[in-house]
Amino acid sequence: MSLFDTVSQNVALQSGNSVLGALGDSVVNSALSRFVPSAVNQQVGNVTRIGGDVVNGDYLGAGRHLLNTGVLDGVLGDLSGVAKQALFWATPTPMFGGLSPAEAKAMHRQSTGVAFARKNRFLIEVGSFLYGDISDRFNLMTSELSYSPSTLSGDYKKAGAASVDSVQSSEAVELSITTYDDANGFLKNWFNDHSKAVAHVDGTLGLPFFYAIRIKVVHSFIESTFGAYEDLGLFRPQNMELSLSRREDAMQELTMTFKQLDTFMRP
Hints:
2 domains, 10 helices, Elongation Factor Tu (Ef-tu), domain 3, 7-stranded antiparallel β-sheet, single chain, two-stranded antiparallel sheet, 42% helix, alpha+beta
């Protein structure tokens, strides 16, 4: 609130909410502006704002208004500009969601310094007794891969009014791979041959040695890298889904699902 506003309000109170009050307001402002320099009026407003900040406990705002008045420029000299810059960097602003520019800069530096994992960067290694290592084919054809590395099942037991967690088992991993295929159906034949090795046409079951598939998944890299997160396990074929359509000219996709062998077995 400036000196002009204070005098104007007093005149308005005495004149009432009428045309005379508005006229008095205009006359007083016009008269005072002739005798009171605008710089003095501005300083009075700054002092009023500083006092309001102190009363409200906003000492940072009071310091900012004090620096803006220029009173400390003669005391600080060239340091006044540095002080104003420091106060700017430490003052929260709505532009950065209520954070100060210094805090926003620190958060940005921290986020840009992290090498985030990319979901489109992964490596698959696939090998078996029947076909040997065909990792190159899978890495070329695979478009999507999904699985749950660890699934623990359990139940809760009642103990009075409380519940106690009772872990029962570690579930086998189910892995799903969506791939393309060549015109000769190499991957479809590969999956079918392993399925036949599990369940023979004569109704007998095969040995895991012949149909077990070793699958390794490396995350965030396109080649085996020391320290990278990876999952490795022995799997058997479970099912294969595919669809054909004459309504569109697109590459065929097939989804192959694998089930982990005994959870205590390791490659």
